[in-house]
């Protein structure tokens, strides 16, 4: 009696499934920069998620009596120009600087990414129109697009998310298009087409799982870019607005007291740098892992 072996989409005949391939986690941790990136990212995520639980004061509580005070037992990192506890504002300040770029990139891939995925598979006039539309969007500088949207509609959280998402759409579209073009002639796609499966079924069930690697790497890189863009906007006064606690806003507010209280500027700047570097190193390691896996299957 013969036993049929089920073959996964994109898997070469006779190739051992799952356990025979290096796990994604092992691939990330194999390189030194991958370990550093994952370590920094995890450390900053723990700080952002659990830091507010350790904040001794409200991040927006104003007390003019101890304004611009140096570190003390009462205020571990001192007080800013409005007497707000710097340590509490620092512990709360990472939430917006991660949440807004994260939601923006999710919106980017839920719209432009999915649209490019379907359009590239369909080809023809649909693909041409979508391609030219995103190329037109790419002709405008990224920061200029954000500044125009924020200046026109105001620096609210929703506008910031949409502005960063729109800016990311052309690049994300190109990444998705390139990944789909590499899979569109694969045997498993042609087999699904021969079975008469609908376009959406082929795209979601067959192509999408096989392009998640490069998409995930690009996803992390775009979050890094979003963090830097949001920090720049906050520094210019067009990002997160007072009295909210935000690392970029803390840097902007503490410019006048840099010599008297440098920690108010240095600490959030170091946190932004650590989060950005961690995500960048982790995404670079992910790109190398996905590339090596792809070359190994050829």
Rounded to the nearest angstrom, the radius of gyration is 23 Å
What fraction, in percent, of the residue positions are helical? Answer: 55-70%
Tally of helical segments: 12
CATH class: Mainly Alpha
- Poorly predicted regions are 1-21
How is the biggest beta sheet arranged?
A: none
Name the structural class: mainly alpha
**How many runs of DSSP E, i.e. beta strands?**
0
Strand content: under 5%
Assembly annotation: single chain
Specify the CATH architecture. Answer: Orthogonal Bundle
CATH topology: MetI-like fold
Describe this structure in words.
With 298 residues, the protein is mainly α. It has one domain (78-292): Orthogonal Bundle (MetI-like fold). The chain is built from 12 helices and no strands. The longest helix has 35 residues, at 263-297. The model is unreliable at 1-21 (pLDDT under 50). Residues 94-283 form the ABC transmembrane type-1 domain. Belongs to the binding-protein-dependent transport system permease family. It comes from Methylobrevis albus.
